Request: fold
Amino acid sequence: MRITIIGAGFAALTAVKTLRQQSKNVEITVIAPRAEFIYLPSVIWLPADLRTADDLRIDLNHYFKKMRVSFIAGKVNRISNDGRQVHTETDTVENDALIIASGGRFIKKLPGIEHVLTPCEGIKVGETIRDRLAAMKSGTIALGFGGNPNEPTAMRGGPMFEFVFIIETLLRKQGRRDQFKLVFFNPNTKPGVRLGPDVPDKLMQLMRKRDVETHLGHKIKGFTENSVMTEGGDITADLILFMPGMTGPAWLANTDLPQSPGGMIAANEHTQVDGFKHVYVAGDAGSFPGPQWQPKQAHAADIQAKVAATNALRLLQNVTTELDKINHELLCIIDTLSHGIFIKRNAKGATFLPPLRIMHYAKRFFEKRYLRQYRG
Reply:
């Protein structure tokens, strides 16, 4: 059996681990630009020098060798033959089953979006935010996120809440908070409602306590070098951090894979791509049935990847056991640099714990434990 995995992020690595745990003989091939894992959740700590680039960048060559994975460095151009062939710039990889864990891409269509910094684009952006903050003597910092109007789940709001609280805490610790104005903006009147029905009001209350202004409920029209333009007026800013909504990978246009209205890969509750028996998707690239609050990053991507890997093996081995389903669960800690806000949501309901110091250290402990399995 040959199973190919596209990507080297959360979902891809969990798929590798799950496949190897369940089968010693399956041939696993991973295709990604580099044999490298970037722990994006901790980019939030780069501006405060709580982490360095080397802390977040993991060389996967040792892990792949240990897991007996064949790694192919390259970017996917297209998929053919019902998913049995994956084409890169230089290779064509054959498989018996395919797991797509490549992640999505940010929608960068707003005018002037080149003037904003998008934190989840990686380490370099996190370092740029750090350097820009250090160079500023005073000014206004605007922070916000958007979405995909055709795909409610295709957004990353959590990290932007973290940047609001972390930058506010950092400036306060540096003794220069009074020299800065922080403005949080969002086109929705209740940003973060996916985290739980009461979460937006609680987060906005925390922002007010920290003297963070809000600009909510106004459609974003675009950006200039020094402003955020909305239908409710412009926000003058010296530094703009913005997380756009997401859509599917660019190479999706070169395939016959079905797309959701928001441009993601359409799949069922078993993570199978609609109409493709041995093609699966996990993480940001996929569009799955289920609640509108469903997440697709980190913990959720791990859940989906376990389902995809397990089902891929079962079908290839002709096991008659019923296929696994995604058990949607949102689990996160919104960090403030000194405290953490614990949030959990699943079919049973939502849990919100106000800022606790122990949750900040819990987030750091989880990072250390999670990365230990992949370090050489």
